[in-house]
Amino acid sequence: MSGKEMMLGSVKEALSYGADTFMLYTGAPQNTKRKDISELNITSAWECMRAHGMKDFVVHAPYIINLANTVNPATYEIAVEFLALEIERTIAMGSHILILHPGSHVGAGVEAGIDRIAQGLNEVLTSNQDCYIALETMAGKGSEIGRNFEELAAIYDKVIHNDKLRVCMDTCHLNDAGYDIVHDFDGIIDQFGQLIGKEQIALFHINDSKNERGASKDRHANIGQGTIGTEALRYIVHHPDFIHLPKILETPYIPSPEDPDKTVPPYKEEIAMLR
Questions:
Q1: How far is C-alpha 28 from the geometric centre of its chain's CA atoms?
Q2: What is the DSSP letter of 144?
Q3: Its pTM surpasses 0.90
Q4: How many Å apart are CA 43 and CA 49, to the nearest integer?
Q5: Among 17, 28, 63, which residue's Cα sits nearest to residue 249?
Q6: Nearest to 179, CA basis, from 143, 203, 211
């Protein structure tokens, strides 16, 4: 969102790619500076969505939220406070899904990080909330939590209102975390189903990866230009169990055909390719 159009501008941009859903940030993902809800142009955005048959969208929380931090209490407190506000904004904008990176334990250990994440989620989640927190599967770089399904399941086990939790499956992150989604996507989903439940998957981030499986690096690639490949990603996009779920592209911008010094979004072409 940017300028005066804010959310309406996001809708128009998504429509320009031929998309029927989209993901947005309520502000820059690297900071906590946000406009008041009254300035987000929500009504006009929904009028445009309805006029074009667009029924939903998802919100991504900023990367700076780190609920797993036990080392710096101030970082944790800011994360909890800001996440609560992001939930309010998500609901006010009419979305039911707020995607969240679980966080990084910054050296304190996975168990301590998971306990802290659960503590933070217990502070912000209520039984009557009209919004799910979708924990994203992570690639496993550094001290990230959520690099495997067991860690996500452990968070679920410690959250009181875990019926308000869901999972966002990121294909690049799954690959980089070591899951063989190219040759055994159904088997991977069965693993997830046994630990957490397939019905807990709320959406997919569809990205190719610049890395070999298990690299733990998290470097997204354009569709068909990485180690996952178009065929495997198309299989996931069209999987009958998840056909109703949003699929969001987070692939890198590409050089402009008119000006190689500039980059442009690849989404229109990639959406057409995957369809």
A1: 15
A2: B
A3: yes
A4: 10
A5: 17
A6: 211
